[in-house]
Target: PPM-type phosphatase domain-containing protein
Amino acid sequence: MDKEQRKQRIVTHSIVEKTIRRWIVVNMAEHGIVVRAIYGNMWTGRHAGLAFASRVLQEVSWLESHERGQTPRILIDTARATNVEPQGGFICTTWQCFPDSIEICSVGTNTVLVGDANGMQEVLVRHSIDEAIKQDGIINDERQKAIRFHRFTTTHVLGGEKGCTIEDIRVVQIPLVQDTVIGILGDNVIASEAVRQKIPGSQLFSFIQDWTPIERVERTSVVISVA
Model:
């Protein structure tokens, strides 16, 4: 299957919300990235994030089917080359279409959902403090508050002095099957509700778009559908 054929099968929709977290989304259908620079200065972070996203997409756009699995190396090398603050770095989620699958690579707090008409499921363990709290299995009212508060606090970054390694990067290959829907969501609260309510894949984007809670929320997301 060539690239032109793949374009006919992939449909993407994205939301980029203007919040203090300043996500950058570059959506090129066959491949793309959701990235945030962890910097103290907003403008420095914005410029570094754009440079990182641009270089990553240039590299992954050349990957052929037999080269799948190279994206983690590209993320590590590009983060080291573009990071301008020793204490800073990047968190991101990328997607790349191959003839028989979509490869997702992720570092940081984004939630990745996969599903179909029967609902969505989370497929990657996030690098976040709230996820670490959940993993120990002890949940009470105090921890429940901590989980909601720390859902945007990452435990791993790319490119900093203590940047993560290739082994830390979460990777999943999702079969390119008709009616499959992939969601990359910036807020785990929305993602968890989509899973709990068994939202069909075809309704995931509108579910995110229509989300109107009274508390702080991050609707930045990308929804990828195999048509």
Confidence is low (pLDDT under 50) at residues 1-7. The two ends are 15 Å apart (CA to CA).
